[in-house]
Specification:
Pathway: Porphyrin-containing compound metabolism; protoporphyrin-IX biosynthesis; 5-aminolevulinate from L-glutamyl-tRNA(Glu): step 2/2. The protein is α/β, with parallel strands linked by helices. The protein has helices spanning about 15-25, 65-70, 80-90, 100-115, 125-140, 190, 200-210, 235-245, 265-270, 295-300, 335-350, 350-375, 405-420, 440-455, and strands at about 45-50, 50-55, 60-65, 120-125, 145-150, 170-175, 175, 195, 215-220, 225, 230, 250-255, 275-280, 290-295, 380-385, 385-390, 420-425, 430. The strands form 5 sheets. A 7-stranded mixed beta sheet has the order 4-14-13-12-9-5-8, sandwiched between helices. Strands 1-2-3-17 form a 4-stranded mixed beta sheet. Strands 15-16-18 form a 3-stranded antiparallel beta sheet. Helix 4 runs parallel beside helix 11 (about 335-350), helix 7 runs parallel beside helix 8 and helix 12 runs parallel beside helix 14.
């Protein structure tokens, strides 16, 4: 494997530097999403195959980002590519813009896998899925506000774009967090519509929910924060109990955990049935997708037979309050659903997810052993085929606990790992795929050891 040598701005990644400078002339910050940027510039990729990425300079990387976890079968799995090709040949187009049979087929899979899903609506992203779930909750309860947990991310729209990664000097008390906006362009009114809750603190969470019960339509959370900090069992069951009592819709954002914790997501393992579930990432097999599933009585609020079509030129006598609008030209795109179904069929095969979880666990244990040998406090946190490296030995149960992590050392190690051909955007979680093989794991552990040898003497662990 070729290695990136030298700094990210030297001749080894000259092609990436030049491509980035070109992009900056026409794309703000040189990227199409803020999350794709890291200093001094991101590495620009040219192609990919299996567990590997190849940049414009020809360097190879073992990929642990996998499009932020979406590619659970790796890059370009032959069966996924074949399904896409076959679908286009069979239907003779790229998209119908009408109903088609794969919509019900994939929806049936989701109702089989996910305990909290009776019916399904498809969207084009996880963001759209959480947005629709919140709209359904508001319509169902007749209440306006929502509650989310500190440190949890549900997309880039106003009502949930609070306290994802807040400055603790502005975030208030740990048992009563203050909403901290994560973007400019948000109004003071936005702040009043979202209550921030402390994750894995049932007593404080219940107190806040009871205080705001008459206003709250929904509580939305990642059952595994950031994909790597699991909810404690007593917490998640207690949250389900109190939301049912208070008539607050419970929404599980399983965009990250869907198909990675289990085929039925975190809810299947916890034994908790949320009212609504948002899905994305793995579900699309590498294409943009989202889905909302939930209780029949809630999902039927999107039924177009209940009210008028707001985009129709024909006048309707129905009042607009009858309408819970949800639409999208590309919802249920046949090529996307074909890729998603092919991915799910691979994951359904006996032993596939068990093998993937075992492989992930093996990498985690080997990495922990290496860091222990070098005297660096470290633990891997996660579930299923996703985890993160946290440089502290102290318990980590929520966002605030992450501030015990030695992030300066982690960042330095991540940059060195990039130079050694291990691709994780600095400070991000690891996602595994069925395409990763034993040689990838061994090479990854060797790279971490090399990085520790080089970085730790210069940047001692605290």
């Amino acid at each position: 494997m070729m290695m990136v040598t030298g700094g990210l701005t030297d001749s080894a990644v000259k092609g990436s530097s030049e491509a980035y400078e070109r992009a900056c002339q026409v794309l703000p910050g040189g990227v199409t999403a803020n999350i794709k940027y890291f200093a001094p510039h991101p590495i620009v990729m040219k192609r990919a195959c299996g567990s590997k990425l190849f940049d414009v300079d020809g360097h190879a990387y073992i990929d642990y980002m996998l499009c932020y976890g979406a590619l659970i079968t790796g890059h370009g799995h032959p069966r996924v590519l074949q399904a896409i090709t076959d679908q286009m040949k069979e239907i003779g187009t790229t998209v119908f813009g009408t109903p088609h049979e794969l919509e019900a087929e994939l929806a049936e899979k989701l109702t089989d896998f996910y305990p909290g899903v009776d019916m399904v609506r498809f969207t084009n992203s996880g963001l759209e899925a959480t947005l629709l779930a919140i709209r359904i909750a508001k319509a169902f309860t007749g209440k306006e506000k929502i509650a989310k947990f500190e440190g949890h991310y549900h997309g880039g729209y106003n009502q949930v774009l609070f306290s994802v990664h807040p400055d603790l000097n502005r975030a208030g008390e740990s048992d009563h967090p203050t909403p901290v906006p994560e973007s400019t362009g948000m109004s003071a009114h936005d702040r009043t519509q979202t209550v921030i809750l402390p994750f894995n603190n049932l007593e404080a969470t219940e107190r806040l929910l009871r205080r705001h019960a008459d206003e709250l339509a929904a509580v939305i959370l990642e059952p595994v924060q950031g994909g790597f900090i699991p909810a404690e069992l007593d917490f998640i069951h207690g949250l389900r109990k109190v939301t049912e009592e208070l008539n607050i819709v419970l929404i599980f954002d399983e965009v990250k955990t869907g198909f990675r914790v289990s085929l039925g997501g975190a809810q299947k393992v916890y034994g908790v049935k949320p009212d609504l579930t948002a899905l994305g990432k793995v579900l699309g097999g590498g294409f943009p997708i989202g889905a909302v599933g939930g209780k029949k009585e809630m999902m039927q609020m999107t039924d177009p037979r209940r009210g008028r079509d707001i985009l129709s030129a024909v006048h309707s006598e129905s009042d607009e309050t009858d309408v819970l609008f949800h639409s999208g030209t590309y919802n249920g795109h046949p090529i996307v659903l074909a890729a998603g179904l092919a991915t799910i069929r691979i994951l359904e095969e006996k032993g596939t997810l068990d093998d993937l979880s075992a492989k992930t666990e093996r990498l985690r244990r080997m990495l922990e052993e290496v860091y222990l040998r070098y005297g660096v406090p470290m633990q891997t946190l996660g579930w299923g085929s996703i985890f993160n490296i946290v440089l502290t030995n102290r318990p980590v149960k929520n966002y605030r606990d992450m501030h015990q992590d030695n992030q300066a050392l982690r960042k330095a190690l991540d940059y060195e790992l990039l130079r050694l051909g291990i691709y994780v955007k600095p400070l991000n979680r690891y996602s595994m795929s069925t395409a990763h093989v034993e040689a990838d794991i061994e090479r990854t552990v060797e790279a971490h050891e090399s990085a520790l040898k080089k970085i730790v003497p210069r940047h001692p662990a605290r």
